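INFO worker-7 received task bundle
INFO bundle size: 2
INFO processing item 0
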Amino acid sequence: MSHLPLTVDTAWLAERLEDPNLRLLDATTFLQIPPEGGYYKIWSGREAYDQSHIPGAVFADIYKELSDPDGKYPFTVPTQNYFSEKIGGLGVGAEETYVVVYDQGTGPSSWASRLWWLLRLSGYDQVAVLEGGLAKWTGEGRPVTDAPGSYPPAIFDRVRRPELLATKEEVKAAIEDESAIIVDSLSPASYNGESDTYERNGHIPTSINLFIATHLEPGTNLLQSDDVLRERLEPVGVLDEGKKVITYCGGGIAATWNALVLAKLGKEVAVYDGSLTEWTADPSLPLVNGKEDPVH
């Protein structure tokens, strides 16, 4: 396939479900913030995959298999060699193949975008996210199965693109850099310091708030049109050619949804993988608790 769009719809996928070059990955993971507050609970989506998934799909376990097993935080980016081995085992790597990723969530497909971003970070661009995920697929009466999928193992041999990954030090530097924009991808409540999920409440100084749910058509889990997105995002500067944009969230998941949205509009950005989990654990790092910075 010469050119793969960054997102595809269910009809597009349905037409290609039998394509031998398709690698369909179910990236479902579950995250729940306790009602009493505190750090979220995470678990693998393998059981949900075992119960029902799009025919042919294989399960890509972001939580247990595609994150650094020695990482300090749950979703730390793994080494290139580790990721290459794991993703190659799922059948991804051959030049003639392409990947579609989806998840079983009901909001923004941020688990799918996390795997989309991991693949692109690892030098693989033939990957798209299924808009609406399994919820839209089943809502249209399309087939599902509990039969496990499988693909022949592949050699994944790519070169990492470090410009897509931001470190804590780079975020610190960006606070004082007028040519950089830091984007908080979480809810306005989190941004304003009203939630109690991380070790400290609030947002990184100078960051603007682009909550990932605001990119969806109201009442759906589908992205707004590129024209609507562009009209809203251009005024805040995140599409400016001369600006370096860094997205962050709580643990490097929601931030990849903003990275996907901006990439659709032609803007490559970096994701701060450690995000607030790492940032708030370091008391020497500044945090704004309140509404001093703009929300969009």
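INFO item 0 finished
INFO processing item 1
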Amino acid sequence: MREPVEPRPYHHGHLRTALLDAAERSLREHGADQLSLRDLARELGVSHAAPRRHFADRRALLDSLAETGFVRLGATLGTALAPGEVERAFPTRVRDAVKAYARFATENPALYELMNSSKHHPGATVVTQAAAAAYGQMIDLIKEGQARGVLEQGNPEQAGIILYATVQGITTMVNSGAIGAEQLDGLVDTAVAQFLRGARPLLDGQ
């Protein structure tokens, strides 16, 4: 006679965090299409209904995962931009921030792809807000450059889009295998130098 199966616990001490951690592992290994609340529940040893106490459906889980990605990206940029013992020159601060961004994107390709697709999903307000908070640090940096007279006056968000598009192109090529990851830092250095040269204020007569 078979032993009765002990029911799995409905509760988990830190289920939301555990679900997000497991979801990111699954995303990295199998992609977003294979992500399943039921599979995650099985992996964590909880009832299949338990995850729905934190995430109404799979879309909600993906949006939360994208949100945490932007929060981490924001922290990464914040660390790169934090003042050190010696004040860094403005070009160095831009290069440090862009390099930190590019490394995050290439070290977390599946998560980064999800972040970018989720922020355009209807109703993903928390994702959009988290993205704005992260990218806002780069806009603030451009405003700083304009205030210092290092960058040309104008719409800082437009300048930010140009810089973002350039770096996005580089990281996409790395993540797709079109160029090797060992080229990332050098390409970022070149991209930032060209951006700063093109965005500097024009002198009279130029």
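INFO item 1 finished
INFO post-check item 1: The two ends are 91 Å apart (CA to CA).
INFO post-check item 1: The longest helix spans residues 58-81.
INFO worker-7 idle
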